[in-house]
Specification:
alpha+beta, RelE/ParE_toxin_dom_sf, globular, 85 residues, YaeB-like fold, Plasmid stabilization system
């Protein structure tokens, strides 16, 4: 698997506090190496076809799609981003 980033994700990532960016990098590494790792709490979003969410911290999440061998990262931010995948 590999990662792909939407412009929306990149812009949101750059605005995150340094500690959250570091935590994100760690979680993205886990996504690639062990997507079932409990700290990711990865699950399919309800009411939105083919979009997944995973945890960065207790308060931050990222959303993504899975296409063949690619995780396309769509958005990242506080928990309320899940309302806008």
């Amino acid at each position: 698997m590999r990662l792909s980033f939407t412009n929306r994700f990149v812009k949101a990532y750059k605005k995150l506090p340094r500690q959250i960016r570091e935590a994100t990098d760690k979680q993205l590494g886990l996504l690639l190496s062990d997507p079932n790792h409990p700290s990711l709490n990865m699950k399919k979003m309800q009411g939105v076809p083919d979009i997944w969410e995973a945890r960065v911290t207790k308060s931050y999440r990222f959303t993504f799609q899975i296409d063949d061998e690619v995780y396309t990262l769509r958005n990242i931010g506080p928990h309320d981003i899940l309302e806008k995948p």
